[in-house]
Design goal:
With about 375 residues, the chain is of the alpha/beta class. The protein has 9 helices and 8 strands. The chain has 2 domains: about 90 residues, Immunoglobulin-like (Sandwich); about 210 residues, no CATH class. About 70% of the residues lie in helices and about 15% in strands.
């Protein structure tokens, strides 16, 4: 009984002591947790302060990219590259609304370049960035020029100018091929020497064969004169220089027009193409002044259509006329050279024929 009484007394004394010890342990465990919270709050405040300082030291460039049409259509997917102080570079892409934004830029002057596959590239666009500031910079881009866009800008005169360009190319190629076919297969000097040698041997048919082998306007014309002379000899008729010249001239009347064919068309195109360009200039200026009368001069973009038409038609007309005039003068010079060559060689051959016949007649006498 006495033992149980002592055990009960021990339990009664130990319970309060255990309770005090447990409270002290809980307070010690809670103290580090509270210190950690204060440390976390201090770190967050420090990070926020650093972010505010960084944001205050850097700037932003933003804006929109749109085309040069009156509707100012936004351009999505355009690439904007930039180069700034210290060699800082990068690039961004415009969104579906044509907007772009470049953040975190150190202060200074930046050079922007804008590119899109359907539009002409914009280069060396200068923007100044200030600490903590926003530089609003919109970029205009025009569609890349193609033959189709040029044609649309030229107005009603585009159709006759297009017809002139097609005719120019067609007839220049046709005439070049015709003159290529008309060239002799034997050089002129070699051809004349062979004909003279055959006539010196009194072999007219050999001379005719040489003409057929050589081909070309000169050979065809001389062949006609030789055949007239050969026919007179076969029929034992008297033949004069005028008779041979007449045969050569008749053959020339067939050959020369073949060389001059379609040259008149080229000459006409060379004359009317600049006039059509001038007409387009006048119509373009009329459109511009009409726009001024209706809208005023506040927006230069409203005048751009008429001025563009005026300049494009003039440039197109000159672009067509210049090569056409060059080709026409070249082909005309070739024809003149053929005519002069025919006259000189035919005179030489006629003299050889007549001298040979008179020499043969003297020998027979």
């Amino acid at each position: 009984m006495k033992r149980y009484t002592w055990l009960l007394l021990v339990l009664l004394v130990s319970l309060p002591i255990a309770f005090v010890i447990a409270q002290e342990a809980g307070q010690e465990a809670a103290a580090p947790a509270g210190g950690g919270t204060q440390a976390t709050e201090g770190t967050t405040e420090e990070t926020a302060t650093k972010a505010e300082v960084t944001s205050a030291q850097t700037g932003t460039i933003k804006g929109s990219i749109f085309d040069t049409s009156p509707q100012r259509n936004p351009i999505a997917g355009a690439t904007i590259s930039y180069t700034g102080p210290g060699g800082k570079t990068g690039e961004v892409t415009s969104d579906d609304a044509g907007n772009y934004e470049i953040t975190g830029l150190p202060p200074g002057t930046y050079i922007l370049n804008a590119w899109h596959r359907r539009y002409a590239e914009r280069k060396n666009l200068s923007v100044i960035v200030t600490p903590g500031g926003e530089a609003i910079f919109d970029i205009k881009m025009r569609e890349k020029d193609t033959p189709i866009t040029y044609f649309k800008k030229m107005g009603i005169t585009a159709y006759p100018l297009a017809l002139c360009s097609i005719l120019m190319l067609t007839y220049i190629i046709e005439r070049a091929y015709a003159f290529y076919k008309a060239r002799s297969r034997i050089g002129t000097e070699q051809f004349v020497s062979q004909i003279t040698e055959a006539l010196r041997n009194d072999n007219i048919m050999e001379a005719v064969s040489i003409c057929e082998e050589a081909g070309g306007p000169l050979a065809n014309v001389l062949k006609a004169g030789l055949l007239r002379y050969s026919q007179a000899m076969i029929e034992d008729k008297e033949i004069t220089k005028e008779d041979i010249q007449e045969a050569i001239e008749e053959a020339g009347l067939l050959e020369i027009p073949q060389l001059e064919r379609n040259l008149a068309v080229l000459g006409t195109i060379a004359v009317i193409a600049p006039l059509l360009g001038l007409l387009g200039t006048v119509t373009g200026m009329i459109k511009s002044f009409t726009t001024i009368a209706l809208e005023g001069t506040g927006d230069p973009q409203q005048l751009a259509g008429g001025i563009s038409e005026a300049l494009l038609t003039t440039a197109t007309g000159l672009t067509i006329a210049i090569p056409t005039m060059v080709a026409y003068n070249y082909f005309d010079a070739r024809v003149s050279r053929f005519v002069l060559e025919i006259q000189q060689v035919s005179t030489e051959i006629i003299n050889s024929l007549l001298l040979g016949r008179s020499g043969g007649g003297s020998a027979e006498a």
